[in-house]
Specification:
Strand order of the largest sheet: 2-1-5-4-3
Number of helices: 18
Largest sheet: 5 strands, antiparallel
Order of helices and strands: HHEEHEEEHHHEEHHEEEHHHHHHHHHH
Distance between the termini: 31 Å
Number of strands: 10
Structural class: alpha+beta
Length: 540
């Protein structure tokens, strides 16, 4: 699927998922809030009703009881209100014909004996709320209020419908925006991709025409210039490169000076340009101008507190920029603080270049792994599978992401030392001779030697060298034992052994997954680290 289709779909699915979660969560929240508010209202109203009724009874103002009942019955969602005496007879009722009677339905019976606040459902459309009527610290009777569930459910339904409507509108607008934004991103990239294909095929007269006003346009312009220069000669390209670098070197970074209150004292044109204004900068806190944030940068605060220079990397997603901000203190002749100088170095492109180099590096590692396995059809895909198992184990054992990434590289390259082994040994259908086995045992050490000139891989070389060490110290090439073996090497050992056992080889058929699992268990604590075996088995 092409990026111009995939990206909008991803955005729409993400927005739709978030929208559904928002609607469900907000609807539940609104429903719970309304229900909780209603319950609090029921309780406070019934208790107030009971307290006023008790005062009226103490004062023998029985007319007030009728007035209380009538007024309570006029309340929102109220169906009826009742005052019961100590014998559970009705003193006052919304419907006067029930006064003097003793209700005997199950709800009334429970309400009559209740000593605390009580809520009961009456059928499917009402709630009966009871509060004891206390006089002189003793229960004398009770008050009851009936509330309409239908009215309250309608209120909840209205709130849910409002949330649903708002959520759908937001999802629709978000989806439309996603499609529009994705198009703005992918169309220039598609043009650039197609142009590079045409030029890569040898058509040096073709030019990429992109007018987006951003880095992609700059990239297309630079690519066109590069293509034009390729038509001339190598020296022209070198001169153009130096001129390009000189142009970049001549660009000034944004800088400004502020006082202890973070108010800007002076700034350069690059800072004004970055802030988007040449007016009303001086005297304002820099975090209200550029870079805009809730307060002063942490590094700036630390510099003022520690009274020493420092730096901080800040990311500004709103403008797609990353700056390395350096903080300098300016003092007078006596060493007293005067103000702070900030220099913002734009490192956005550098970060992107790092990511690109990392992608190229990983692609090279995969290619190198493929070259290793191309020596024998029996090992095709072995390194990738070992890498997958190792990552599972590492993640289960709680290794951090950067460690998992290095572990994946080690998994891809763990058998690189086999490049120097004759194909006849690797593809031999019968048992290896002692001399042949000794040659095979050299591949971890040879792999470490092959990779040693690459300083970026220095940290993983001991893992590759030690992936055939045995937990009991009887492995090779160095005879390391237990924790002397790097953890990552112990992980690779289990992953490598498992894949080797379940894969077909020229000298045997696969023994199967169950047999491989039993072998791992049998040699746990002997050849393999028990903790690594346990972690691996949890991933299967």
């Amino acid at each position: 699927m092409k990026l111009r289709i995939k990206l909008p779909l991803i955005y729409i699915l993400l927005i739709a998922s978030l929208g559904v979660v928002f609607i469900l969560f907000t609807s539940k929240l609104a429903e719970d809030h309304i229900r909780e508010a209603n319950n609090e209202h029921f309780e406070s109203l019934s208790k107030a009703f009971a307290l006023n009724s008790a005062n009226a009874i103490i004062l023998r103002d029985y007319a007030a009881l009728r007035w209380f009942v009538d007024n309570i019955s006029k309340g929102e969602h109220v169906i009826y209100s009742i005052i019961l005496d100590e014998n559970s007879s009705v003193l006052a009722h919304t419907e006067p014909e029930f006064e003097g009677k003793m209700p005997d339905d199950p709800v009334s019976v429970k309400a009559a004996i209740a000593t605390n606040f009580l809520m009961q459902t009456v059928g499917s459309d009402a709630i009966d709320v009871t509060a004891p009527l206390m006089i002189a610290g003793k229960k004398w009777g009770a008050v009851r209020i009936g509330f309409s569930l239908t009215d309250m459910q309608a209120k909840v339904a209205r709130a849910k419908n409002l949330v649903l409507f708002a959520g759908l509108i937001a999802m629709f607008l978000g989806g439309a925006a996603a499609v529009f934004i994705a198009g703005k991103f992918t169309d220039p990239i598609h043009k650039l991709h197609r142009g590079t294909e045409i030029i890569g095929e040898g058509n040096l007269d073709y030019r990429i025409n992109i007018s987006t006003g951003d880095e992609i346009e700059q990239l297309s312009t630079a690519f066109n210039k590069m293509t034009e220069n390729l038509k001339k000669n190598y020296h022209t390209i070198e001169r153009a490169k130096k001129e390009w670098e000189a142009t970049f070197d001549a660009i000034s970074d944004p800088l400004f000076i502020h006082d202890k209150e973070f108010k800007i004292i002076r700034c350069n044109r690059a800072y004004s340009k970055a802030a988007g204004t040449f007016h009303e900068i001086i005297g304002r806190p820099y975090y209200e101008v550029f870079p805009k944030m809730d307060g002063a940068m942490k590094g700036c605060l630390k510099v003022l507190e520690m009274q020493e220079e420092g730096e901080e990397e800040i990311s500004l997603p709103a403008i797609d920029k990353i700056y390395n901000t350096k903080f300098y203190l300016v003092r007078d002749a006596y060493g007293k603080y005067l103000y702070s100088l900030h220099i913002l170095e734009d490192i956005t492109e550098a970060r992107k270049a790092d990511e690109h180099l990392h992608e190229l590096f990983m692609a090279a590692m995969v290619s190198l792994s493929s070259a290793i396995e191309a020596k024998s059809p029996w090992t095709k895909g072995h390194s990738e599978r070992v890498t997958e198992y190792a990552i599972r184990i590492g993640r289960t054992m709680g290794l951090p992401d950067d460690e998992l990434e290095r572990l994946s590289i080690a998994g891809l390259l763990h058998d690189i030392g086999k490049i120097g082994i004759y194909d006849g040994i690797l593809d031999k259908t019968g048992p290896l001779t002692d001399d042949e086995y000794e040659i095979v045992k050299r591949h971890p050490g040879k792999g470490a030697d092959v990779l040693s000139p690459i300083k970026q891989l220095a940290g993983i070389i001991p893992w590759i060298r030690g992936h055939h060490e045995s937990y009991d110290g009887k492995g090779y090439p160095d005879g390391l034992k237990g924790d002397e073996i790097p953890l990552q090497a112990r992980i690779l050992s289990v992953a490598d052994a498992f894949d080797s056992m379940i894969a077909e080889r020229p000298y045997r058929e696969t023994p199967g997954k169950e047999m491989a699992i039993e072998e791992l268990k049998r040699f746990s604590g002997i050849q393999f680290d028990p903790k690594v075996v346990e972690a691996f088995l949890r991933t299967l």
